[in-house]
Amino acid sequence: MTGAQYTALTVLERRPGITSSELARRSFVRAQTMAATIDPLLEAGLVRREPDPEHGRRMLLFLTEAGAAAIETLDPQVAGVEELMLADFDADERATFADLLRRARVSLDERGHRAPPAGQ
């Protein structure tokens, strides 16, 4: 599983029933990139699509039980990588780093960040 696929699963865990376009926005990628990310997850049975009951043509994405199990299996590995990444940071540096990441995310959200056009 790729990092992008893991991220997609975790976003769907927190926000079930979003569209692929919304998932792309939340992951800061183009819709086409998200389609390529989601397709293998659909084929593997980790994600399912359901029609939006309010908008017949829209499809909503949901994590399956297998998808939730995949996250549960991968979370310790991801935590291990994160721990390696932060191994040389003391507690204050970790807190500062987390705060800076949070502020960067909020800044992007407030500015309605969209993924860059292809080729940029």
Automatic annotation (TrEMBL):
Listed GO MF terms: DNA-binding transcription factor activity
Domain HTH marR-type per the UniProt entry, residue ranges: 1-106
GO BP, one annotated term: response to stress
Pfam families associated with the record: MarR_2
InterPro entries: HTH_MarR-typ, MarR/SlyA-like, WH-like_DNA-bd_sf, WH_DNA-bd_sf
Domain of life: Bacteria
Protein name in UniProt: MarR family transcriptional regulator
Organism for this UniProt entry: Microbacterium caowuchunii
